[in-house]
Structures are given as structure tokens and as C-alpha cells.
Amino acid sequence: MQRPTEFVREQVSAVRETVTTAAASAAAEASTVPAHVGDFIRSQRNAAQVSLRELARSAGVSNPYLSQVERGLRKPSAEILGQIARGLKISAETLYEQAGILDRRSGTAGTVAAIRADEAISERHKAVLLELYETYAREHAREQVAPPTHDPSQEETA
Fold first, then answer.
1. How far is CA 20 from CA 23, 49, 105, in A?
2. Which of 1, 71, 111, 150 is deepest in the core (most CB within 10 A)?
3. How far is CA 57 from CA 31, 52, 65, 96, 148, in A?
4. pLDDT tens, 76-131?
5. C-alpha angle 83-75-114 in degrees, rounded to nearest 5
6. The model's pTM
7. What is the DSSP string of 47-84?
């Protein structure tokens, strides 16, 4: 039986390969990047193979309202974006970035889309990988804000 750490290590390696491929593909197809948050929500919903009605129900918003958001006719609040993110099982920060509420982290949206689009991974594994990826991305962002300091007293002498 495979140990959990081995499983996670294999999955992370598979995601890295997928992300590398997706990043190259995304760079080549820059015209497919969503123009506004509604396009992004629709692309994530389609990647997750969830109907508009199912997403509206799980997000706790009306079907017509969600449709208007996807078509760019309504600008959702941060609270509604958070509800939609929960319905899509993605981080709220991802939607906030797309809506221009937060500064964009490089690669997050493309990585999430690549994981969701990978047909070789089950939905359960996708959820685990997305959670791991978001954790690593947050930790990396924290390291960028406050890089570790060098303490000469911790060095070994030869």
C-alpha cells in the first residue's frame, strides 16, 4: 500500500509537469486569457464541468445573477466572489485577483486551470492538489515579503 507522503510527492511531481506544459501553452495562447472576472468564472466552471445552475446553487446566488456576472453585466462584490469561489472549490484570492481587488500572483490562475483541466486526475485528487498548491503559493508569497535573514552566529566554524 502506498504511503500518503509518497502519494503526495507523486502528485506534486505530476502537477509540476502539468504546470510547465500549461504555462508554455498559456504563453502561446495569450488570447484565451479571460478579459474580465465573468469570463474567468465561466472558464473555471467549464473546467470543473459544473453547470451554471449547479454553481449558482452551491454558491448561494441566483441563476440569473450568476449568468449576468459571467456575461459581464454585473460586477459582483467581494462577498459574492468568495461564495462563487467556494462553489468552484478555488481560492477566493484567485477571483479577487481576476476582479482587480488584489494584486495578481504570477501563475496562480493558470496553475489552477491546468490542474482542473487535467483529465488524468480524479476530482478528489484535484481538490487535494489545489489545496496543496494554494498552501505553497501562500508560503512563497510570505517568503517574498519577508525573506529569511542571515544570522552569522548560526554558522559553523571550520
1. 5, 23, 16
2. 111
3. 31, 9, 11, 21, 44
4. 988 999 999 999 988 887 788 788 777 655 446 677 778 877 888 877 787 778 77
5. 60
6. 0.48
7. HTT--HHHHHHHHTS-HHHHHHHHTTSS---HHHHHHH
